[in-house]
Description:
Two copies of one chain form a homodimer.
Chain A: E1 4-9, H1 15-26, E2 30-31, H2 34-43, H3 47-55, H4 60-73, H5 81-99, E3 102-105, H6 109-112, E4 119-125, H7 128-138, H8 143-165, E5 177-180, H9 181-184, H10 186-197
Parallel strand pairs in A: 1-3, 1-4, 2-3, 4-5
Helix pairs in contact in A: 1-10, 2-3, 2-5, 7-8
Amino acid sequence: MVKVITISREYGSGGRLVGSLVAQKLGVPFYDRKIIEMSAEKSGLSENFVADNEQCVKNKFFHNLAFGYMNAHGAAGQLSLSDKLFLVTSEIITDLAEQGPCVIVGRCSDYVLRERDDVMNVFIYADAEHKKERAVKYYGMDAEKAIVEIARTDKYRANHYSYYTDRTWGDRNNYHLCLDSGFLGVERAADLIVAAAK
Amino acid sequence: MVKVITISREYGSGGRLVGSLVAQKLGVPFYDRKIIEMSAEKSGLSENFVADNEQCVKNKFFHNLAFGYMNAHGAAGQLSLSDKLFLVTSEIITDLAEQGPCVIVGRCSDYVLRERDDVMNVFIYADAEHKKERAVKYYGMDAEKAIVEIARTDKYRANHYSYYTDRTWGDRNNYHLCLDSGFLGVERAADLIVAAAK
């Protein structure tokens, strides 16, 4: 029996919208950016730091720099602020899944909840043309910028996921359903997820 | 409007069964091993050659050897027997799609029909445990042999697909739906495909 649905998604695929439709159709809470507020509150870090950290492509160098810095000052033991934040967010996701049925978007939630057997993991993707169209239409982006922004955001997501999970972002083996929202449309993609979860 | 559904699948995932269920539910023809007979008839090659060729992992060396051999004898112009067979099978698949709605399993059919806009491409996969279980239960394999056979067959499929299409087998971008039949079960996977196609 599926209790929690996690949605991972390519930028511009409408995956967030798919997730919110699924939550609406199932009548369960939907967690997306709300987790940022919750993480900020729980960690004592500012919402801005949390949101910025979500947008920043991590690399070993900066990570190690932060790691060394934190150690020298003894402020956060072995962990960088980003790593602390990941742990706080993971605790929040674990608690949300414990509390009851819900839909969670992103934040490595498929990995965080990997020990549960009542979680269905979904990946939403689309072809470049559909993603560009969506970025221009709904995020008001200039078409040329959209291509760069899609690549940059997905690179960040892949990097972030691989850094924390040691898995490959978008690899079908991490998900139970992978749906092309460009081909299916967001409404039908949501319907298929609901049908799969029932 | 979806007219043709192609099913690509990992060995042991039950993808063939999913495809036949979809065809049954939609009331359309199902083409799987029947294409071997059709290819044998059309090419003048024996059914055994066609079936064996389907099981043989190609590599550059053997390909080039065959290529050189065929040239020296002038029997098949620039093409090896395997390449000729691929072209014959592709023509058959193209004709089947032209004739009317159907479900086609394997044989790079997603790639062969890439120019059509009425084709839905599906990839069926499952976790190792489910695939092994299916191979033991339905194909009567010994559990240890099943692991080797699954790896061998999927390696062949990936190799064959990449050789003829220059794409990566199992890469979500080649498919509109990727479904984990181990998690969903074959019946539900078939229902989702039917719902997606309608």
